[in-house]
Amino acid sequence: MTAEQPAQDPQGSPLQFEPFASSLTPAFLQALGQAKLTTFRLDTSAQALTGSYRTPGLAPFHVQRAEGTSTTHQPILFIVNENAMEIGGKDASTSTVPNVFHCPGTLINTNTVEEFRQLDFAKLLDQHRQL
Prior knowledge:
Blueprint: E1 21-24, H1 26-40, E2 47-54, E3 61-65, E4 68-72, E5 77-80, H2 84-88, E6 100-107, H3 113-118, H4 121-129
Parallel strand pairs: 1-5
Antiparallel strand pairs: 2-5, 2-6, 3-4
């Protein structure tokens, strides 16, 4: 592959990349608050959690807008929901839902703003990049 030749999939079509959005659901934040009070308490050890990456479906869907209905495809989305901590300790490499892939991660729990400010984010990124 050279600069003049774009990357191609096995069928010979040019590969296309789309940016994706990410989101923590309100239900995840509620589950995290409950786990902080009942399970983690003052424990600052890293906790396993799992997010989900959804690729766009092939079937278009219709969006109602003020100027009329338009057809679009589902956006690419990385989401952390209320099940993230439950899945975290299990095999998260497979999904039974089409176009959904689980991504294991780590929750770094701190108890004070000072502890949070002392975190070395560059070091954390380096450690997780090498996994």
